[in-house]
Write a structure and sequence with these properties.
Layout (H helix, E strand, L loop, with lengths): L1 H8 L4 H17 L7 H14 L6 H14 L5 H15 L4 H17 L5 H21 L9 H12 L7 H14 L3 H13 L2 H17 L3 H18 L7 H13 L7 H17 L1 H4 L3 H12 L18 H15 L6 H15 L3 H4 L8 H18 L1 H6 L1 H10 L6 H20 L4 H28 L2 H18 L7 H12 L7 H17 L2 H19 L4 H11 L2 H12 L4 H4 L2 H18 L5 H18 L7 H10 L7 H12 L11 H11 L5 H17 L6 H14 L5 H17 L4 H15 L9 H11 L8 H14 L11 H15 L3 H15 L4 H17 L8 H7 L6 H17 L1 H14 L4 H19 L10 E3 L2 E3 L40 H13 L6 H14 L4 H14 L2 H12 L10 H12 L7 H17 L12 H6 L8 E6 L2 E6 L2 H17 L6 H11 L5 H17 L1 H6 L1 H12 L9 H23 L7 H13 L2 H16 L10 H5 L7
């Protein structure tokens, strides 16, 4: 068999040679045929294959390379060395074909060598690399031998840290190569070596390059050294940062000195290197930002025929001097000529366009073209803008004026970059959290030159090409979002430009059309509504014309704009209503009808796309809801048209939503023409299996009964209630509450159905009261209130009391718990409301019954009675029962935890009825009973919490009570049907029944006075250092809630103590700030924003528990309060990143016999900081420097905790989708850390849980590897392929797991979307942000 193979391989027939190699490859892969005799003849086979590298047939040569790649795993190391020697000799050959084939073979063989072949690694270090270097030097670094640097680089990349290299020898060689050769391959090879070199070699190399830069006189060599430093910054990360204070002055010197004035290529390289340093090392470059801007100002004014100034001192003191000077000159000439220079620039560009666009490409091949310098400067400014928000604010004036000055640019290539940079500046402003002073300052700076900006981009819209118009439209949109008040006087000019782009005869680009319509939407939402109306009437015909375009993208965008139009028309009509607008200006009525008719016309078209028809239905409903009174004659036809879509399945939900919009309108118009058919159709949909359809139908029916007067058949209502009763159950609480709200609406409209409600609905309502998911009681309370107010002789309190108590008796609870059952709270509030709405006799009788039940031995009933007394006491002053509060305080001594907790909460609510009477009792009891301090604080928390809800209108505001016929009456501002997001709903009394005779002292005070506040604050501060952690936590919560009452005073006290107080107090204060942050509460946001920096400083505290509390505070702010995120986040990021490191002083090992238990006191901090990093990436990615962020994340993978590693893997997957190139630049370090995770060994003392967590960690890591391989930017990396070879060679089981994860991902076909915001969020920014 071997002889036959040898004969064929040495044959003169090309096909036989090719087939021999092909059979060899196939047999070795399948382990058949030649594989059986391979060990006997392996040396001969390898040598024969090597010979075929030199063959007359190119196909045979290529196949021999593939054969060598397959042979390597089957031969020993000594034979591999021989193969490599032969190939290297062939690479050195002067025969170009042989050299190239051998070069390819070397790379293929290298991929098959694994990290465990130590003899091969030694061969690389001691023989191969020195031999390659020797050959390069012998040939005097000729250009033909430069590809050998690629071989060295490939070896260093794969085996760098495993090689025993003579680093000093390599350093001398590479520095010599750098001086002799100008090739980029030399620079790349040097950078790869420096990434592996020790600190001493790295520092000495940089010192040599800096010294060469100082004394070098050849321009070409200066370029080479600066380019090398730029490439090094990509490889070695922060190592180079400490040298920048010497490098940057040298680079700026070469940009400025006049002797280099003709070397534009050198200046371009210098600017590019500065851009790279700004991006990679923002910490080290911030001090030079002002210097950079002055330098850029000088270079932008430089042209090919002009000389640079000799020094920076001869230039303007700042860039703004030039702008202000030009402004003064322009003001002397008059406003009409103030932008002549910019206009000439635009017109000249347009002229060049029409003449063949020669200026755009005339300098493309000239390496010294000055336009390339200006391009580099703009790219550098763009990087500077995003690198540091702090520096951007500080230098905004110079950056803004410099960009405005750049509008005089005549080269179209640079113009586009200039505009994009200007847009990026505006975009950064929109995402930054600025205080009021900074916003005003920026507004003033922009205002000075806004006329130049608007006039310039107005000319761009008139004359420039499509790609320039698109960016101009985006800039105008962003200006309206940020500075709409500054643009009022330029509306005419802006609208003229928009009309020119909307004109159907001129428009050629669909993207421009879409961007124009989006811009118009933003203008409509943000501009002054009074000023915009005249221009809107002129542009409206162009908008309507755009709808009929065949392109659906344009149609959808225009239709989204039209959704905003009815509101604009309504506002204008309302503003003219006092002047009889029909006589004064009936053009708005004409516009309304035009809009209406064209929407109806489009809706009748049968060939429209479903998505467009759905949008048309929504627009038509919006038109009716805002303009129904104007379209009174057309309304019957329109309503019937919309009703016709209800029976079409694909449009049913959209049509119901449209009717919901119409019904909730505040405009007076009649819908009687279809109201009965609509109710019947909506009732039919209640039987649907689609919950969303049922939700929307119920909500629409509820609004119909609440807002429209019509007659309804009682029998029909009863049949409807039977359907509704099936929806009231425990399976879907949300649907249940909507259904009950609907029943309440019907009951108000048709009281005669009360018996049906009692028999069919009420039992189902009772059944849901014990549901733990019932967090919103507003609708339930309204339902019971409507029942008891129907007729108290027919429906008295006792009818409801017995079923409610029976529910409590049947409800099973844990009597030893500290938590009050949710059912107790819900039913007690219902009972309290029923008592309040009943007579005085019922009220007194109920208090007596509840007092008796408290003394019973049944813990469950006693606890419920206690809570009910508290709820009643919150609504009615019970101070006349002098022993009631003493009874509650005595229950603090109960042996039952549930009784103690219930009494504490009830006493706090009881105090709300008469704060002046009960608050001293709380404070006195606290001093007398040290054993019950926790319970007293819990009562105090109830008092403070109820006071806060009172002031926000969420419960009774005791200061707003009025007494009519001895009954408390409340001004209820909130609609009783509205849902509340709070865990407890607090009943708001109704003033319908005025016959109650409860004696109330009208002179009592129901709010905190200064004395109350001082007493409580002193009590809380005295217990900030309480030895019991539970008390400290509830003190923190009280502080957080109390701050809502006196924000400035209390926060000022907390800030004072946070800097001077002991550790325990600081921890309590930081925890209290956490309770101040709530997504629905904005009352103290401004005060918190001004003082939050004092609390964030605790991230640098020595105590880990305080740092943990601060991290939790920061996480809450990131999640719920973006306003509290400081604009100078870069000051916090180093402290955040510091928490990712494992601190040895926080890790302790406890020996339990032979077992070792590791106690990691820093684990919670690291888990909290993961949440911080994740939130920063998801919502605040524009505030972070990705280079530092990714480096921190990758280093975090070295953590010992498996949960942390799994979470970090998920963050890296997000980064792959958001910034794949950033992962690619850090791929080497990432793969090293992943490899250490995959081959991490468990301790011999590990338990079953450890093995499960380890398995989860491995699966998470493999999922990350799959994501890496699926990324287009990363998948082709040599590092990744080498990584695959390594892990598979070491553990084949990992390959099987990888395949399973890949197949699972392919089957799921899930896509991830990490976009920070979409267009719909973008255009609805608040008006007049500045």
């Amino acid at each position: 068999m071997f002889e036959k193979f040898k004969k064929n391989l040495l044959s003169n027939d090309r096909d036989l040679r090719y087939m021999a190699l092909s059979d060899l490859n196939s047999d070795l892969e399948k382990k058949i045929g030649l594989f059986a005799i391979f060990n006997i003849h392996k040396k001969q086979i390898v040598r024969l294959v090597l010979q075929k590298l030199v063959d007359s047939s190119v196909e045979v040569c290529s196949l021999s390379v593939q054969s060598l790649e397959i042979l390597i795993p089957f031969i020993d190391d000594s034979l591999v060395k021989e193969v490599l020697n032969e190939i290297i000799v062939s690479v050195f050959s002067n025969d170009q074909q042989l050299s190239e084939i051998s070069y390819l073979a070397f790379h293929k063989i290298l991929n098959k060598i694994n990290y465990q072949q130590t003899t091969i690694l030694t061969y690389f270090s001691e023989h191969l690399i020195p031999e390659i270097i020797n050959h390069i030097e012998k040939n005097n670094f000729s250009s033909e031998k430069l590809k050998l640097f690629d071989l060295i680089k490939t070896v260093l990349m794969k085996f760098g840290l495993l090689l025993c290299l003579d680093q000093e020898f390599l350093q001398k060689f590479f520095m010599k190569s750098l001086q002799i050769s100008r090739s980029q391959k030399v620079v790349e090879c040097l950078c790869e070596f420096l990434s592996l070199a020790n600190d001493e070699i790295f520092k000495s190399t940089i010192e040599i390059i800096i010294e060469k830069l100082i004394y070098e006189k050849q321009i070409v060599m200066v370029q080479q050294y600066i380019r090398t430093l730029k490439e090094i910054s990509d490889i070695v990360k922060n190592k180079l940062g400490i040298f920048l204070n010497r490098i940057i002055p040298l680079i700026t010197k070469y940009c400025i000195e006049s002797k280099y004035k003709e070397e534009n290529q050198l200046i371009e390289i210098c600017i590019q290197s500065l851009e790279r340093f700004i991006y990679k090392f923002p910490k080290y470059t911030q001090q030079y930002y002002e210097t950079f801007l002055i330098l850029f100002n000088k270079l932008l004014k430089y042209d090919n025929g002009n000389e640079l100034e000799e020094s920076l001192s001869s230039s303007f003191d700042s860039i703004s001097d030039f702008i202000s000077t030009s402004e003064e000159e322009n003001s002397m000439k008059g406003d009409d000529n103030c932008c002549s220079e910019h206009t000439e620039s635009v017109n000249s560009d347009n002229t060049s366009e029409n003449s063949g666009e020669t200026d755009e490409n005339e300098d493309l091949d000239d390496i010294n073209s000055p336009w390339k310098v200006r391009r580099s400067i703009m790219n550098c400014i763009s990087t500077l803008i995003v690198s540091s928000h702090k520096q951007l604010i500080k230098n905004f004036k110079d950056i803004y004026n410099l960009l405005v000055y750049s509008f005089i640019e005549k080269n179209n290539n640079i113009c586009q970059i200039n505009y994009k940079t200007f847009f990026q500046l505006l975009e950064q402003l929109s995402i930054m959290n600025l205080n009021v002073q900074e916003k005003q300052l920026i507004k003033k700076i922009v205002e000075r030159n806004i006329h130049i900006v608007i006039q310039h981009f107005g000319q761009v819209l008139s004359n420039k090409r499509t790609k320039f118009k698109i960016i101009a439209i985006k800039i105008i949109s962003k200006l309206f979002q940020l500075f709409s008040s500054l643009l009022d006087e330029y509306l005419e000019q802006i609208f003229l430009g928009i009309i020119s782009t909307l004109d159907e005869n001129e428009i050629k680009n669909i993207d421009l059309k879409i961007e124009t319509v989006k811009c118009l939407t933003i203008i409509i939402l943000n501009a002054n509504q009074i000023l915009i109306h005249p221009y809107f009437k002129n542009i409206f015909p162009f908008i309507l014309k755009s709808i009929k375009r065949k392109n659906h993208r344009v149609s959808l965008t225009v239709l989204e704009l039209l959704q905003q139009i009815p509101l604009i028309i309504r506002n204008k009509i309302d503003s003219l209503s006092n002047l009889n607008y029909q006589l004064f200006d009936n053009s708005w009525e004409i516009i309304s009808k035009k809009l209406y008719h064209i929407i109806c016309e489009l809706l009748r078209l049968e060939n429209s796309l479903p998505i467009i028809k759905k949008l048309l239905i929504k627009i038509l409903s919006t038109i009716i809801s805002y303009l129904g009174d104007i379209l009174a004659n057309e309304l019957p036809y329109t309503l019937k048209l919309l009703f016709s879509f209800l029976t079409i399945p694909s449009f049913t939900l959209t049509s119901i939503q449209a009717f919901h919009t119409i019904v909730k309108s505040n405009i007076k118009f009649s819908i009687k023409v279809i109201i009965h058919q609509l109710i019947e159709q909506l009732s039919y949909f209640l039987n649907s299996s689609k919950k969303e359809l049922i939700y929307t139908s119920l909500q629409t029916l509820t609004l119909l009964f609440q807002k429209h007067n019509f007659e309804i058949n009682e029998k029909f209502s009863e049949n409807l209630l039977i359907k509704i009763s099936k929806l009231i159950n425990n399976s879907d609480i949300h649907l249940t509450l909507i259904s009950i709200n609907y029943v309440t609406s019907i009951l108000k409209k048709l009281p005669s159905i009360i018996d049906c409600v009692l028999n069919i609905i009420l039992p189902n309502v009772y059944s849901i009261l014990t549901n733990p998911l019932l967090h919103n009681l507003s609708i339930i309370l309204d339902f019971f209130r409507e029942l008891i107010n129907y007729d108290q002789e027919y429906l008295n309190f006792n009818i409801f009391k017995q079923p409610l108590f029976k529910i409590i008796e049947c409800h099973k609870i844990d009597t030893e718990t500290f938590l009050i059952p949710k059912a107790f709270i819900s039913i007690s509030q219902i009972l309290a409301m029923l008592v309040y709405e009943s007579s005085e006799e019922i009220y007194e009788q109920t208090i007596e019954e509840l007092t008796e039940k408290i003394t019973k031995k049944d813990i469950k009933i006693s606890s419920f009675a206690i809570i009910t007394i508290g709820e009643i006491g919150k609504l009615i002053d019970l101070s006349k029962y002098s022993n009631l509060h003493l009874l509650l305080l005595s229950l603090f001594e109960s042996k039952s935890n549930l009784i103690q907790c219930s009494a504490s909460v009830a006493f706090g609510k009881l105090c709300c009825g008469n704060l002046e009477y009960y608050l001293p009792n709380i404070l006195n009891f606290f001093k007398q009973s040290e054993n019950f301090q926790y319970l007293i604080f819990k009562s105090l928390k109830e008092v403070i919490q109820n006071y806060n809800f009172n002031n926000t209108g969420m419960i009774i505001n005791h200061t707003n009570h009025k007494t009519t016929n001895n009954k408390i009456i409340m001004n209820n501002k909130n609609n009783s049907t509205n849902s509340s997001n709070n865990s407890n709903y607090y009943y708001t009394p109704n003033n319908k029944n005025n016959n109650m005779k409860i004696s109330i002292n009208n002179n009592q005070t129901y709010s905190f006075n200064e004395n109350h506040l001082n007493l409580i604050i002193n009590l809380l501060f005295n217990n900030c250092t309480n030895e019991k952690q539970g008390i400290r936590k509830i003190v923190a919560e009280c502080f957080g809630k109390l701050t809502l009452i006196k924000p400035k005073t209390i926060i000022k006290m907390l800030v004072k103590e946070i800097g001077n107080g002991p550790t325990v107090m600081r921890h309590t204060i930081i925890t209290s700030v956490q309770f101040m942050i709530h997504k629905d509460n904005t009352t103290i946001d401004q005060v918190l924003f001004e003082n939050i920096k004092h609390f964030y400083k605790c991230l640098s505290d020595e105590d880990s528990s305080i740092r943990l509390a601060t991290l939790k505070l920061l996480n809450l702010a990131l999640q719920y309060k973006p306003i509290l995120i400081p604009r100078n986040l870069e000051d916090l990021l180093p402290l955040i990143y510091q928490e990712t490191k494992m601190k040895k002083d926080l890790i302790h090992i406890v020996h339990i016999g032979e077992l070792k238990n590791v106690i990691d006191n820093g684990l919670e901090n690291r888990k909290a900081v993961i949440t911080t990093l994740d939130l920063l990436l998801s919502s605040y990615s524009e505030l972070i420097n990705f280079s530092e962020y990714v480096e921190v994340i990758i280093n975090f993978l070295l953590d010992i905790n498996t949960d942390i590693i799994c979470k970090i893997n998920k963050i890296i997957i997000k980064i792959i989708f958001i910034r794949p190139l950033m992962i690619k630049s850090n791929l080497k370090r990432l793969l090293e850390n992943l490899k250490s995770i995959l081959f991490r060994n468990l301790s011999k003392y590990s338990i079953r849980k450890d093995y499960q967590q380890h398995k989860t960690m491995i699966n998470s890591t493999l999922s990350l590897i799959v994501k890496l391989s699926s990324s287009v930017e990363i998948s082709n990396s040599v590092l990744l392929s080498n990584f695959y070879d390594t892990i598979i060679n070491k553990d084949l089981s990992l390959l099987e797991q990888l395949r399973k994860i890949e197949s699972k991902n392919n089957n799921s076909k899930m896509k991830m979307d990490f976009s920070n915001y979409n267009y719909s969020n973008q255009i609805f920014l608040s008006r007049n942000y500045y």
